[in-house]
Amino acid sequence: MLKKLSAAAIAGLLYLNAPQVNAAEIATDPGDYVPLPAGINLGILYVQHATRDAFFANDAQVPGNNRLDTTIGLARFVHYMDIGGYIVDPQIIIPFGKVDLKTPFGPLPATSESGIGDPLVGATAWFVNNPANKEYLGLSAFASVPVGDYDAQKGPVNLGQDRWKGIYQVGYVKGLGDKFIVDLIGEYATYGKQDNFLGFEREQDDSQSAQAHLRYLLSESSHLALSFYQDFGGETSLGGTAQNDELDTNRWLATYSTFIEPTIQLQFQYGQDIDVKNGFKEDQRLNFRVVKVF
């Protein structure tokens, strides 16, 4: 039983180069699927801090003091262009930061790791772009390139993952009257194999995510939003043995966003997990984002 618990604990610590743990590979923000005109560039910096003080396996909380904190930054560059009459936004996202396992977990001692994560490269193409009716539909594809910092002996406590990932999203946005806008996003992610994960070969099934944002427009430059994320799938195997650690996680996030100047936007977010089937449960999350338009 101890051996099985250790393996489940290893598998349950999912990687942290995405903005969230046990979550969508690309967790969207309200308004991400509204395109800007061709020729516009965005420079975006995210800072995200999350704390976790409980670990769950098969819907049951694992006894003991289990603590994991993360402070993750993301540097993102986006360029909007016109290709054949459609707006497309090629972009790159570079994660960096620190993963801090505060308490021993399974076979791992308390440890931390900092550095650069695996960059994400990709783009969204909009096939419906109707500002007059506040209606948009975009399709996205991203690749996570395994060049970030990775120490095989620390397994899950890494910023890099030492594997390729493919991330695909569809996003639909629709205005509801003058003040409300709803954003609906679906995600499908695929994972390459890791040859050395604490001495094991690690594989992961495809995962899925449903994301929804409801925005209330305070003015032309500010809005409030409430978001809901549901993640599922993604069971892992170590050395060919299934770990029964598939995701079934949902969480909420509140957002306030405003332009302090015509070309500078600030965004503040607070949220937490609601239910977690497998993995660490976030007790609180604080996000900050600054966008420069040029």
- Segments where pLDDT lies below 50 for 5+ residues? 1-22
Measure the end-to-end span. Answer: 57 Å
What is the string of helix and strand elements?
Answer: HEEEEEEEEEEEEEEEEEEEE
Number of strands: 20
Radius of gyration (Å) = 19 Å
Q: Count the helices. How many?
A: 1
Give the strand content: over 45%
Secondary-structure-based class equals mainly beta
Give the helix proportion (percent range). under 10%
Biggest sheet strand order reads 1-3-6-8-9-10-11-14-15-18-19-20
Question: Mean pLDDT, rounded to whole units?
Answer: 90
Q: What profile does the largest beta sheet have? A: 12 strands, antiparallel, barrel
Which word captures the global form? globular
Question: What this model shows, in words?
Answer:
There is one protein chain. The chain is mainly beta and 294 residues long. It is built from one helix and 20 strands. The protein has a twelve-stranded antiparallel barrel with strand order 1-3-6-8-9-10-11-14-15-18-19-20. Mean pLDDT is 90; it is low at 1-22.
List keywords for this structure.
single chain, about 290 residues, mainly beta, twelve-stranded antiparallel β-barrel, 1 helix, 20 strands, about 5% helix, globular, disordered N terminus
Short overview:
This protein is mainly beta. It has 1 helix and 20 strands. The chain is globular, with a radius of gyration of 19 Å.
